[in-house]
Amino acid sequence: MNTQTIAFIGLGTMGSPMAVNLARAGFTVRAWNRTDGRSGPLSAAGGRPVGSIREAVADADVVITMLPDSPQVEEVADRPDGILACARPGTLLIDMSTIAPRASVELARRAAERGIRVLDAPVAGGEVGAVQGTLSIMVGGEAADFEAARPVFEALGATIAHCGPHGVGQTVKAANQLVVAVNIQACAEAVVLLEKSGVDVGAALDVLSGGLAGSHVLTRKKDNFLRRDYNPSFTMALHHKDMGIVTDTARDLGAVLPFGSAAARLIAEAVARGDAGLDHSALLRGVELLNPDLPGR
User: Fold this and answer.
1) Cα(229)–Cα(38) distance, rounded to whole angstroms?
2) For the segment 64-96, what is each residue's pLDDT rounded down to a tens digit?
3) What is the pLDDT of residues 6-20, one digit of tens each?
4) pTM for this structure?
5) Which of 285, 156, 175 is nearest to 230 (CA)?
6) CA distance 80 to 269
7) Which residues are catalytic?
8) Nearest to 276 by CA among 236, 222, 241
9) Radius of gyration over every alpha carbon of the chain, rounded to an integer in angstroms
10) For residue 235, what is the DSSP state?
């Protein structure tokens, strides 16, 4: 039985199942969400939704934020009744959102002035990984704080790594999103190539999955491609945000990323043509537009 109290801020697509898994692991979980109607699964798992950030973080040992982007993390941290104002000194703040590395470094600096420890710990694995508790968690911050947080991470993920100082977890997540974007685009182009050849695309993708071309992306998104099912597990809009982090980070580091730049542009084009709310596998739609003679289209 875990004796720590966790304040969980953000019960979205990822945050809700993560909070549920923490409650099921025996942590005392108090949760606050910016909008109503998201607390049912946590309540059923034994967690407690509360009406304010102040109530959530009061006497909490750990505060976890799981929010869309830097502005939302900064808002819940810095508002007068927010985390930094209301959490007690010594509290461990774990930001599991995907935000810019420089924003994570700055959050850690501001929190230290209040005696609050910080880890940036973005995750990979999507909604499926959040539900199953098999996320990959890449962590930046002090090694001692990482070790203190290990029981929390073990309730959420299967692959957990301390990657370096503040901000480095976010840099590793940016690399993850770069690999995923390029992989989805390559898979989408392969689907079009196969369809134009007239082969059984499902069988062909099965064969590809068994060889060096196989990937989690191909396995997870195969049915999306075959059925043109773009019900989102991760939206194009969020991947567009993440690719902005990739390009900004590359600029800060002086890194030239040819495929990364192309992937960022293709995702931006998808958002611009109205696909922001679709699953990021809808990059296939862009390849289809370039192939108007595609069979069955």
Assistant:
1) 25
2) 999 999 999 999 999 999 999 999 999 999 999
3) 999 999 999 999 999
4) 0.94
5) 285
6) 39
7) 173
8) 236
9) 20
10) B
